[in-house]
Amino acid sequence: MTAAPETFPVVRWVALLWLGLWGTVYAVHWGWLNFLNLCDISVILTCLALWRGDALLLSSQAVSSLFVHCVWTVDVGWRLVTGAHLVRGTEYMFEPDHALGLRLLSTFHVVWPPLLVWALRRTGYDRRGFPLQCVLALLVVSASRFTPEIYNLNSAFRDPLWGRTWGPGPLHVAAVLIILVLVIYWPTHALLRRLLPSAAGTGAVRSAPPPR
């Protein structure tokens, strides 16, 4: 991995403090199993990447989570405006059984997309982040099949929209991975490659237009 800790001299400490606060509260309230969620893994790896100045880890977590964080933000906003959810998954944000402070911690979903894009503009986008995230998703979703089914971590037992099981365990996991890669990871990867400069040593940086 290409790492340069001096890339984020201040933000790396903010990330470390945030990880300590967020991780402690989530561990106490939701339990350690919650950290197997891909979106929570993204928080941990993004903070580690900011600490290290690691373009590869930042890129993999941008591929993994930009779309998910944006959907989360849109759904919460839609619920605030219309009183109904556009998609499922953010209902807990409006349940008074959970402390307000705990729910406010989840607003990291709003901050993460601009944070990742800003960080990648400094480090460059490492196209190896796409295959790295595909392998990570394979490991995490497969491992989620060994957790209690009631939690349905990473949709390893039922899809998040219709609550259906797509065949036996291996077939369902394969279906989840195909959707993640083709619907979320690959389009995000293609967009980031187009819009951001390449990380040093991983491909040609976009050249300036020829003089006219």
Provide structural commentary.
The protein has helices at 11-29, 38-52, 55-82, 100-105, 108-123, 129-144, 169-195. The protein is an all-alpha fold and 212 residues long. The longest helix is centred in the N-terminal third of the chain and has 28 residues, at 55-82. The model is unreliable at 204-212 (pLDDT under 50).
Q: Report the count of strand segments.
A: 0
Count of domain modules: 1
The global form is globular
Low-confidence stretches are 204-212
Give the structure's gist in a few sentences.
The chain has 212 residues and is mainly α.
Topology:
Elements: H1 11-29, H2 38-52, H3 55-82, H4 100-105, H5 108-123, H6 129-144, H7 169-195
Task: List its salient traits.
60% helix
